[in-house]
Amino acid sequence: MPRTASKPTKKRSKPYTVTSSDTDPVPSASSKTKKSSKENDEKYKLFNKYANTSSGVIDPEGIEKLCSKLKVSHTDIKILMLAWKMKAERQGYFTKAEWRRALKALKVDTIKKLKKALPELEKEVRKPLNFADFYAYAFRYCLTDERQNCIDIGTICQLLDMVLGSTFRDQVDHFVDYLKIQNDYKVITMDQWMGFYRFCNEISFPDMTNYSLELAWPLILDNFFEWMREKQA
Amino acid sequence: MMARTIDFAQGWRSMQIGITKLEKHVEGLPGHSLNSEQYINLYTTVYVMCTQKPPHDHAEKLYNKYREVVEEYTKSTVLPALRKTYDDEYMLLRVLLERCSIHKKMVRRLSRIFHYVDRYFVVRNSLLSLEEVGLACFVDMVYNTLQLRVREAVIAIVDKEREGDDTGIDRALLENVKDIYVEIGMGKMKRYEQDLESFMLEGTASYYSRKASRWIQEYSYFDYIRKSEECVKKEKKRVSHYLYASSEPKLVKIVEHELFVVYANKLLEKKHSEFREIAGGLEPITNIFKQHVEDTDGQDTAAIRKVIEVHDKYIVYVTKCLENQTIFHKSLKEAFKFFCSKAVSGSSLSDESLATICDRIIILKKWASEELSDEAIEKVVKFLAYISDDKDLFAEFYKKKLARRLLLNRDASDDHERGIITKLKQQFGGNFTYKMEGMVTDLTLSRQNQNSFDEYVANNPAAKPGIDLSVTLLTTSVWPSYKTFDVNLPSEMVKCVEIFKVFYETKHKRRKLTWLHSLETCHINGKFDQKPIDLIVSTHQAAVLLLFNTRDKLNYTDIQTQLNLRHEDLVWVLHSLSCAKYKVLIKEPATETVSKTDVFEVNSKFTSRTGGVKIPLSHVDERKKVVEYVNNDRRYAIEASIVRIMKGKKVLGHEQLVSECVKQLSGMFKPDVKAIKTRIEELIARDYLERDKMNPNMFRYLA
């Protein structure tokens, strides 16, 4: 979502000073504006507890603090899911707007409530339609550079474990093994990333009887398939 | 309605008059037409006779009389007419058709007259209608007796046409014949199928069975195939003239069965034996390869001549069989390779070795005591290029060898090289050869340039190189890429380089010169104890040797520091001078390989029978580099092809994209499917393509 610079939001009935990092292009419904300003206050208060006062955003340190309060590890998939809900753009940072977006959607404004909402969030994300979107988001989230469009093998292995580990343990384990051994690829592209998700969903494992080299599976999966076959022989 | 009853005999008499008239009329005889009054009278007579009270109701009698009339008519008029035609197929058919149509007319007219009989008597007693009676009569008396003759007539005509005699074939007539069968069958196809179609199919089968048994003996495999396919085509066209469309597939199947299926095994045998024969004819070529391996100086020119002969003979043979050209070419290639791999065991017929063989043939020709015609050499090279698997790989190796020949082996004439390149161009296209032509042109231009340089030196007292310098100018884009070395040249050479640089700048201000010292040759005179010897060495070797003009002994490090060559390269140079055939330098210790601690000095005792010695410098294996270069090239070619295809089709499935790509590139090399997949993924990552959201096996072009 593009962030517009210092544009005052139109639908607030009570004008109050907003800092530039606060701009939010998401319009709130007019009927909610009166209520929302009070609620927003709560959310921003919460935000400020973890945000870095000079940069105005929650940085990695803040996230650590948040995680310990929520009693989840910062490598827990729930944090990534939260980021997804926020549509957070930059890994390791949450902006005020992103924060507000998620908390509003989850209908929470305290840490306690947020903690309670996390399992629900996970359920929501795991719905097939949402999960595909989440899976793609996870890849984009890890891109460190705007110009970059691929992620190194090491990070991918961790990401796969985090994102697909609980649902496709077997596939992830084998594929991660393979990724570490092979020499053809040093980075993974979005196409290959999504390809693996399709693979997990469509191909029976470990027999892989319905896999075909004739189709347009990414080459890395073809190689993975052949490697598995050799191992199984 | 008349008051008195009509007596049958009397009534019939009056009928008979009318009927006779009618018979004459349908024959076309003038003056016998019945006017409407006469018709009405006849009709009324029938009516009355049918409606009279018994015992005067004569319907049954009339019915039977009707039949008699038709039968009599048929016997007296139709049969005799047909009998006259027995010898002539055409007449028979013609008369038959005529008679059939007249008979129909007759029956119709009669039925109209006797109509009242149809209306009540026939219906009440469930009998055949009058028309049906008429038809049955025709069938019994005419059709059944003549049917065989009719069929035979048809097949005789068709066979004549098959033999090529299609003069006077009356197509219209033939087309109408089949209609009779349908009419006889009362509109149904059964009679047609049973009586005409099955007979024609049988006749066709036996015709082609006869032909096939002869052709399989007389024709070669490809001629047989071609002729058979022609026949099938012709039969398809012909069948509509005498049979219905429904019969076509049945007929074609029979023809194909007789020509192909029955002789399937024999055909296969034929193919293989002819193949073996060709392969046998290639045996003389093995001599050439033996020579290649045994490295003899003399060559078997007779063998080379035989190659040409064989090559010519089979190329003619192949170009005749147009339809099966690719298959045959492939077979020829395989046969060739098979024999050669047998003769030269262990040596693979890789594209590189083919290029090497070309190189030797081109070079040997010049050193041979016996002259090989240029034409002969051109043909052999063309042939070898042709059997290479990957044209682009062969081209790269050939180019490298050509470069070496042009630069280091000045004996081969430029025109000759050009001639060979032209032959290759004719067969494989300009893409394949334009760089090679460029290289040869460069040499010609270099010579002209050299003349200018010599003039410049002569007229310019300041520009005196002090040694004979000749420079070859290479256009970078067409020559293979060579490594450049930052070697410290001896001062004499540095001077030369400078002078030439100045000269060149007067002609071409903007151009940059990069010196390829690794390809240069130097003539150095070495004053050895026994006698002075001319050494022909590379620039790097010369640089090393000249160091010893100022120092007697030098260790490895000294040499390296002074020359600034990399270890990998210097080792070779020193090796060639101290450990190889001509030991111009003495190495301490005198081991087989050069190491960084060795010490070198001039071998003053060095001598040779001849006054001049060429010291070769073995070069690093270039094969890997060539392969790498070609692979890179291929990557671009595949990508370009994919983009081209997708731009045109916008959306395309994976399988089709791959096969289109292979097809497009088939002229130069066979792209590996994995390579294509990799390129596709690359293009996806670079946003040229995307996968379709619904079907991940489909790709979409992103404008």
UniProtKB/TrEMBL annotation, chain A:
SUPFAM superfamilies, alphabetized: EF-hand
Lineage summary: Eukaryota, Viridiplantae, Streptophyta, Embryophyta, Tracheophyta
Protein name as catalogued: Defective in cullin neddylation protein
Residue ranges, annotated region (Disordered): 1-40
Boundaries of every DCUN1 domain copy: 38-229
GO CC list: ubiquitin ligase complex
MF-aspect GO terms: cullin family protein binding; ubiquitin conjugating enzyme binding; ubiquitin-like protein binding
Domain of life: Eukaryota
Pfam families linked to this entry: Cullin_binding (PF03556)
GO biological process, one term: protein neddylation
Purpose of the protein: Neddylation of cullins play an essential role in the regulation of SCF-type complexes activity.
PANTHER family: DEFECTIVE IN CULLIN NEDDYLATION PROTEIN, RP42 RELATED
Entries under InterPro entries matching the protein: DCN-prot, DCN1-like_PONY, EF-hand-dom_pair, PONY_dom
Record organism: Brassica oleracea var. oleracea
TrEMBL record, chain B:
Gene Ontology process terms (BP): ubiquitin-dependent protein catabolic process
Domain Cullin family profile: residue ranges: 349-578
InterPro entries assigned to the protein according to its UniProt record, in alphabetical order: Cullin (IPR045093), Cullin-like_AB (IPR059120), Cullin_homology (IPR016158), Cullin_homology_sf (IPR036317), Cullin_N (IPR001373), Cullin_neddylation_domain (IPR019559), Cullin_repeat-like_dom_sf (IPR016159), WH-like_DNA-bd_sf (IPR036388)
GO molecular function, one term: ubiquitin protein ligase binding
Annotated SMART domains: CULLIN (SM00182), Cullin_Nedd8 (SM00884)
Similarity field: Belongs to the cullin family.
Name of this protein: Cullin family profile domain-containing protein
Species of provenance: Brassica oleracea var. oleracea
